[in-house]
Amino acid sequence: MSGWLFLGILAVTTVILTPVLGRYLATVYGGGPTFGDPLFGPLERVVYRITGVDPESEQHSTSYLWSLLAFTAASLAILYAILRLQGTLPFNPTGMPGVDPALAFNAAVSFVTNTNWQNYGGEATLSHLSQMVGLTVQNFVSAGVGLAVLAAFIRGLTRNESRDVGNFWVDLTRSVTRILLPLSVILALILVSQGVVQNLSGFSTIETLEGGTQVIPGGPAASQVAIKQLGTNGGGFFNVNSAHPLENPNGVTNFISTLALVLLPFATVDWFGRASGNRRNGYALMAAMAVLWLGSVGVAVVAESSGNAALADLGVDQTVTAESPGGNMEGKEVRFGPELSAIWGASTTATSNGSVNSMHDSFTPLGGLVTIGNMVLGEVSPGGVGVGLTGMLMFALLTVFLAGLMVGRTPEFLGKKIESAEVKLVTLYLLAMPILVLGFAAVSIFVPGALDARANPGPHGFSELLYAIASPANNNGSAFAGFGSNTGWYNPVQALSMLVGRFFLIIPVLAVGGSLGAKTTVPAGEGTFPTDSPLFVTLLIGVVLVVAGLTFFPALTLGPIAEALGT
């Protein structure tokens, strides 16, 4: 299928399904009745009874944060223990030993923070129990935490004179039971019907048609693939992720998986529009996200379908023919070709997902620039489940503040005055990730042996290093796979990057939500800057590109830009 046709069908399907899912999200988090109440209600009451949670109580933003951090700490300890002890635990048909302490800590932090960075090969390192009870459970609850934070933030933006932002335990439970679990069951069944493996087998040795033997891995892959896509997790059951034919065997699974990347993030924006009482606000944010997403996809498709300039100079024909997909096929599956691989690559880095159906390390310099660029822009187009919209809303608050400075009026958003306290928190939010990425990348250049992880010298090697820090810090999880980061330096550095990239952004988001929720809503007046107009959309896109983009421009110049200019 042509990449442009694929993209068109993907966009139309997303437009059709987004309001359906967005309406459901608004009902779930608004406490209204849904069609699933007879099924989910009793299940949730059992959970509340066991955990001692009062579903009718609400929490101040600070209490909400402490509950979130306590849950995360417990999740981290449990997952680390499972990985270390997997050699003595059941459902280990191939006898996998316990995971090394540094790697186990890196992996535990990775999945708890919804990053799913993997310094290991899944089928060669983890038992079925670790995959099912350890990683897959965290795929659900870490994505649920992102949705819960967004729910709290939306309440802060829309409530009047209230510091209560909801109940973390209720939001987390409803996120998993009413949204992520049912959607994942549907997607997993579709994947299984198309040949994605789902069993409890170990490795099977078969005889090939040529008379040789081949080892085929088994395991509960479809169930993990479904939530990794829907929850913007990204961690693959197999080492090569969705490039593996047992995770992503054909065009149908590739389309469904790509749709799952973007559907829930865009649906959260529709939910915000409904919850705010002005759906045009949601449309404005969605338009800004769509422009950034489609722009990055378009650049990636053109770059990868145009081929490798170095090969063209050698006389290699890279044109599209009936026998060849053409373009840059290095590191790509023949069943997808360069265009569908580029669409996935741009989408997975725009959504904080991190799953791959091709090797980003083999992208052209311009294609690689798109994947790194999407991450360092803050992954707000449309970003991860929950956290993507919170990031764009923080940019929106900065946009109205800057607009207010230009016209000399007090900035407002949804009837709330944006004052110095909120602007300081927004600034902390926007500075945390760049300081982390640029700081660790700079230090890694001088640490003895750290540069040995590169697979290539020169600008591309710097791109590999920058990607290896930017991806964990942005809770993405994809990689320039030639970079060997399973080392004594990168395991702890990446773990710290994942923790800071997750919680140093969540903390200011909840603080802003609590601060705005306590304020009185002010009716819009003649001096109010409209946040549902084309002008606002244009300014918002400009702020994202200028504030986030220029911060990383010097680093990008040393990597993919220098490589592109040198080819």
Task: Characterize the structure shown.
This protein has 18 helices and four strands. It has 567 residues and is mostly helical. It has a domain at 387-566. The strands form two sheets. A two-stranded antiparallel ribbon has the order 1-2. A two-stranded antiparallel sheet has the order 3-4. Helix 3 (61-85) packs antiparallel against helix 4 (101-112), helix 6 (128-158) crosses helix 7 and helix 15 (420-446) packs across helix 16 (458-473). The longest helix has 33 residues, at 534-566. The protein is globular, with a radius of gyration of 23 Å. The two termini are 29 Å apart.
Please write out the topology.
Elements: H1 3-30, H2 37-51, H3 61-85, H4 101-112, H5 122-125, H6 128-158, H7 168-193, E1 203-207, E2 213-217, H8 221-230, H9 251-276, H10 279-306, H11 309-313, H12 337-350, H13 365-376, H14 387-407, E3 412-413, E4 416-417, H15 420-446, H16 458-473, H17 490-517, H18 534-566
Antiparallel strand pairs: 1-2, 3-4
Give Rg in angstroms. 23 Å
Give the strand order of the largest sheet, numbering strands 1, 2, ... along the chain. Answer: 1-2
Q: Outline the biggest β-sheet.
A: 2 strands, antiparallel
Number of strands: 4
Distance between the termini: 29 Å
**Helix count, per DSSP?**
18
Shape: globular
User: Which range best describes the helical content: under 10%, 10-25%, 25-40%, 40-55%, 55-70% or over 70%?
Assistant: 55-70%
